[in-house]
Amino acid sequence: MFIKIKPLGCVALILGIIGLMAGMYFVLKGQPDTSPTVAQGGISPAVNPTPPALKDPTFPTPEPFTTVPADDSRVTSALDVKAMEEAKKLYGKEGTFVGTVVKVFKPTSGTVQVLNFAEDYKTTVVGAVKEENLPKFPELETLIGKKVLITGEVFEYQNRPEVDLTDPTGIQVVE
Fold first, then answer.
1. Phi, psi angle pair for 45, to nearest 5°
2. Fold observed for domain 66-174
């Protein structure tokens, strides 16, 4: 009781099964299928760095960032984001820094979003929110142009200090 399939039909069947499996993988993984479409020429994938949880209407919306007065001791005692040498002394420890966000960098990998405090990000400490923590945070773009206080573990990334922001309480808007 075999079904006779022509060679071209067999190829189409195999490709269909592969496509179905890839789609199931992304559904089960909870991420959108970013494989190239025919309309895209099958060359470059459409990358969406925003985690699906942020788009899921059943997922709770994160609270807005909290604020802190400019004269608060946490702000006045914080290191400036330009204090690179002092920041390097804090590797592996918690550090608090203050600066104005100029850009939120989102690499196409979608694995992290980075708060930059200067056009040349290499001249200041940066704040990094990893992909697994992004659903907990309000939109980081709302911080552009605002003075913020960031607190988290300081670690070395490409010979520069970076603050690991694992929770929204690690970012406060200075008023």
1. -75, 150
2. OB fold (Dihydrolipoamide Acetyltransferase, E2P) (2.40.50)
